[in-house]
Specification:
Shape: globular
Order of helices and strands: EHEHEEEEEEH
Pfam family, one: EVE
Family: Belongs to the UPF0310 family.
CATH architecture: Roll
InterPro entries: EVE_domain (IPR002740), PUA-like_sf (IPR015947), UPF0310 (IPR022996)
Number of domains: 1
Largest sheet: 8 strands, mixed
Number of helices: 3
CATH topology: ph1033 like fold
Protein name: UPF0310 protein V6590_04155
Strand content: 25-35%
Length: about 160
Amino acid sequence: MPHTETRYWVVTASADHAARGQEWGIVQACHGKAAPLRRMRPGDGVVIYSPRDRFPAGQPLQAFTAIGRVGEGEPWQVDMGGGFTPWRRHVLWQPARPAAIQPLLGQLELTRWQSHWGMVFRYGLCTVTRADFIRIAQAMVVQPMDRAQPMGQAADQ
């Protein structure tokens, strides 16, 4: 049975990688693996959690740095040279500001009551509830979203 219910995902990536993904309209997950991206479907919500400002050993950041909706199409693979061929998925990114996770820890079902809350982000991809996604969006989104339009699309498109 095909999945039809909207799901919500958190991808762990450094802020510099999140910014590059926003610029290119894509997301990569788990060091470019295909399987995590194949679980996503068009219309699913996606947010990037950035433990650091840059990869591989930047300064600690601990913030949500990008938010959007998975776009149409299937994941595809690119050759970045040097034998690195990551998989990508199209994302319609919403204009947003970074939101520190610390003020949200007690509000998110994902991290509430977790003394070692950072472990939930360790594997690079996890699901979150719709309520958590909305809480994160409220902390990040600069402009109110029109519910009739997918995040990342202007109302006049």
